[in-house]
Every structure is written in C-alpha cells, then in structure tokens.
Design goal:
Distance between the termini: 45 Å
Oligomer: single chain
InterPro entries: FAD/NAD-bd_sf, FAD/NAD-binding_dom, NADH-Q_oxidoreductase
Pfam family, one: Pyr_redox_2
Strand order of the largest sheet: 5-2-1-11-22
CATH architecture of the largest domain: 3-Layer(bba) Sandwich
Strand content: 15-25%
Number of domains: 2
Bound molecules: flavin-adenine dinucleotide
Largest sheet: 5 strands, parallel
CATH topology of the largest domain: FAD/NAD(P)-binding domain
Family: Belongs to the NADH dehydrogenase family.
Keywords: FAD, Flavoprotein, Oxidoreductase
Protein name: NAD(P)/FAD-dependent oxidoreductase
CATH superfamily of the largest domain: FAD/NAD(P)-binding domain
Structural class: alpha/beta
CATH class of the largest domain: Alpha Beta
Radius of gyration: 22 Å
Length: 429
C-alpha cells in the first residue's frame, strides 16, 4: 500500500489530510500518517486569541489522534529532524513531558510520498535579544506560555504588586501584531468585568513597524489607514518607519537611538521557514522555504511535496506566493489532488496552482474589522464593520466545516457558540 506521510497538521495540512484521508485512507488505497510536534490543532490565525485567553483550547482544539481515527490517517507526535531521501525515510525527534523527561524516543518513518507543511517561525533577522526577551506566536505552546505571562502581569497589577502602566511592545505591523494589540485592550475590558482591579489606562501598547504602513498586505490605502486610526483610538501608539536594533529585558532600542520600555514584548516582524528544512538535502531559498514547482512538487525530489508558509512557489509573473492562510489552504488541497492522481496513474500531468487572491481581513477584537474581498477582481470589494466581521468569522467557520464535514462541523460551531453564551468568555487558567 502507498505510504503518504504529511508533516504539519496546520491550516493547510488539516484540510489536505481530511481530503486524502477520505479518498485514500478510508478506502484502504493508501496508509496516511500525520507527523506534528503538537498533539492538537488550533487554527493559527487565532493564536493571538489563545495568547490572551479569549479562545479556549478546550473548545477549539482538534485532537489529531481522534480526528485521524475518524478520517483515515494515523498520528505520530514529534518534530521532523532529518531526512534520508534515497531511503525515503524521515527522522522524527524525541518528545518530552513538561518536566523534560523523554516520552517517545527519536524514530524513523518510511514513506512513498512525503508532504511537508510545517509553517513558518518568527524571523529575528539576527537582531540581538529577540530570542531571549520576546515572545512569538509560532506554535500553540508559545501562545499558551504567553497567556500565562500576560495573566500573571495583569493579576499583579490588579493586586497592587505592580504599579504604573503595563507596557507592551509589539514588533511587526502585520496581522499578528495588529490583532494582538487590539486583543490586549479587549482582554483588559474582560478582566475588569471579572472584578480585576485594572484602570482603563493600564495598558500602554506600542506597535512598531519597520515599513511605512501597518497591514501592508491590505491592498487599499484607506483600509490600511482605517486600521492605524482604529488602533490609535484604542490608545495604541503606532510607530512606522521604525527599525528595532536590539531587544533587552527592559525594552527595545530603535535605529534612531530611542529606547521603548516594555514589560512584555511580542516579536511578529516577519517569518521564515523552520531551520531544519535547510538541512534535509532539498533545494531551499534564503528563508529556508522548500523550493517547489507550481504543482507543489519539490524541485529536488518528485516524491516530496510542500505547501504553505514553508514553501516557495513560483507564479507565472515571476513572483512567489505570499505566506498566508489562503495560499496554504489552496496549495494543500491541490497537493492532495496531485497525490490522488499519482495514486491512480503512474504517468500523469499534475495540476498546477495559480494564486487567486480571495481577499484579506484584519480583526481588531470586538472593536472593528476591515478587509477586502475578491481582490483578484478589479481591486475587489472593501468592507468594514459588521459585514467585514461576518466574513472574517466565516473563514474560521469554513475551516471547521472542512475539517469535520457539514453536519458535525455545523453542530460543533453551534455548540461552540452556545458554550460562549454560558461559559466564561475568558480562559484564566
Ligand atoms: C496571530 C496570527 C494571525 C494571522 N492572521 C492571518 C490572516 O488574517 N490572514 C492570513 O492569510 N494569514 C494569517 N496568519 C498566517 C497564517 O496563520 C499562516 O499563513 C497559515 O497558518 C500557514 O498555514 P500552514 O499550513 O503553512 O502552517 P501552519 O498553520 O503554521 O501549520 C504548521 C504545522 O506544522 C507543525 N510543525 C511546525 N514545525 C514542525 C516540525 N519541525 N515538525 C513537525 N511539525 C511541525 C505545527 O505544529 C503546525 O501544526 C496569521 C498568523 C498568526 C500567528
């Protein structure tokens, strides 16, 4: 039986697994295995909500083992650490418990086709202090670590153990940075409603962007301006054209010599693919992304495919795909189609991917949402407020429906909505 190993059960990987599992896994045509460092999936664009507690992993996480059992794939936990492409064998690193004790040893897994979708990690651009003194939102575990830190600081302020402002610096004016800045204000409001003794002016959030504008991914200037304006209305200080040169425990140094104090720093200033990809003997670019053709196939080895943030995919105009949720999803589904074609026919022309920009949305917690739909059509349709909020929320709903099917997915969404009515809005533990 054909062995297909998928490394990375993220935004793209889960939808690919659902499709492959249904067509090949459940029908016994292929043995499909997912490898992931984590043992559950949370949709990455919601990690900032996980980091404040407004998203409860207990309600939103998808357990790989149980999802796999129902959807025709099995699960192996651990990081991808090596590859022998001649033997068609990958190495999975050991896993450890919270005390650092080994749970599973390093091991090997054989494949006929390997699909890599390990996403991206924060790019520190070699700037001193970033690794040691800032948080990042690459993995669910990092979001949960950050949540503990934020709640501890808030609790200490509430109990009078810390005085003055809670200063937070966010480096990077893309979706992660912008949404986190707004989410912090939402968190403060919710904590106040739970009886935490926090002043309305507790937060001092500074958003620092090296480029000339926040949300450069939004295609229209007035949408980018609306984001900046709404952040400023919340009290966020937005610094554009500002380059950070060092991060310390006390704050950030900028290229102009200004020191920005910070009790809590989030680094969201750009991404690159995980380092391990550049050690596999496959062609990669300077950001460690695997070079693949527009069929998702590695330029080095036709038995290996990649998609999403960790793949460098050329487009007909010579550009490369942006690292975004929609590109991860679209290419992952095309890779699934191509694997099904290869399963049926030994000599077949694979499907080719052409990027279609369906739009971008940014959600400033409960305060505002803006975005642009159908950007591929004559500039698309700009939306703000409730309609934008509806479209933004429907992206996650679509992901859940894709993962669970219309009936179970629909029921889960209804249940989730009801839980939000009856359970606390904030996860504090
Ligand atoms: C807060 C936030 C907001 C965002 N908002 C938007 C947005 O509004 N619009 C948008 O288009 N994009 C947004 N993004 C980016 C979007 O989430 C990514 O582009 C998308 O998730 C990429 O999907 P992927 O499948 O390539 O990787 P991911 O979804 O990142 O999944 C990667 C998977 O690989 C696993 N993994 C990582 N390393 C290893 C390893 N060594 N071995 C095994 N497994 C590994 C991870 O655990 C994870 O399950 C946002 C990201 C964040 C953090």
């Amino acid at each position: 039986m054909t062995r297909i190993v998928v490394v990375g059960g993220g935004a793209g990987g889960m939808e690919l697994l659902k499709k492959l599992g249904k067509r090949l896994g459940k029908t016994g045509k292929a043995e499909i295995t997912l490898v992931d460092v984590s043992d559950f999936h949370i949709w990455k664009p919601l990690l900032h909500e996980l980091a404040t507690g407004s998203l409860d992993e207990g309600l939103n996480a998808v357990d790989y083992r149980s999802h796999g059992a129902k959807n025709g794939y099995r699960f192996e936990q651990g990081p991808l650490v090596g590859l022998d492409k001649d033997q068609k064998q990958l190495r999975i690193g050991a896993t450890f418990d919270e005390q650092g004790n080994e749970v599973l040893p390093e091991r090997s897994l054989n494949y006929d086709y390997l699909v890599i979708g390990v996403g991206a990690v924060t790019n520190d651009f070699g700037i001193p202090g970033v690794q040691q003194h800032s948080h990042s939102l690459d993995l669910t575990s990092e979001a949960m670590t950050m949540r503990k830190r934020i709640h501890k600081l808030m609790l200490q302020h509430s109990q009078g153990l810390r005085h003055g402002k809670l200063k937070m610096a966010i480096v990077g004016g893309g979706a992660t940075g912008v949404e986190m800045a707004a989410e912090m204000h939402h968190l403060t409001e919710m904590m106040q409603s739970y009886g935490f003794d926090l002043g309305d002016d507790l937060l001092e959030v500074t958003l620092i962007e090296a480029g000339p504008t926040v949300m450069p991914g939004l295609p229209k200037a007035h949408l980018r301006a609306a984001v900046a304006e709404n952040l400023e209305l919340l009290g966020v200080t937005v610094l554009t054209d500002t380059r950070v040169t060092e991060v310390t425990q006390a704050g950030l140094m900028t290229a102009s010599g200004e020191f920005i104090q910070s009790d809590l720093t989030l680094w969201a200033a750009g991404v690159k693919a995980p380092e391990v990809l550049s050690t596999l003997g496959l062609h990669t670019n300077a950001q460690n992304q695997l070079s693949v053709s527009d069929s998702g196939q590695s330029l080095t080895d036709p038995a290996i495919f990649a998609f999403g943030d960790c793949a460098s995919v050329p487009q007909p105009d010579g550009s490369f795909l942006p690292a975004r949720g929609q590109t991860a999803r679209q290419l992952a589904l095309l890779v699934a189609d191509n694997l099904m074609l290869l399963q049926e026919y030994s000599d077949v022309e694979l499907k080719r991917y052409v990027y279609k920009d369906l739009g971008s949305f940014v959600n400033l917690a409960r305060f505002h949402t803006v975005g642009n739909m159908f950007s591929f059509m004559k500039g698309g349709l700009a939306l703000a407020g409730c309609p934008a909020r509806f479209v933004y929320a429907s992206l996650y709903r679509r992901h859940m429906l894709a993962l669970h099917g219309p009936i179970k997915g629909g029921l889960l969404l209804v249940l989730n909505g009801m839980q939000r009515l009856f359970r606390p809005q904030l996860k504090l533990w």
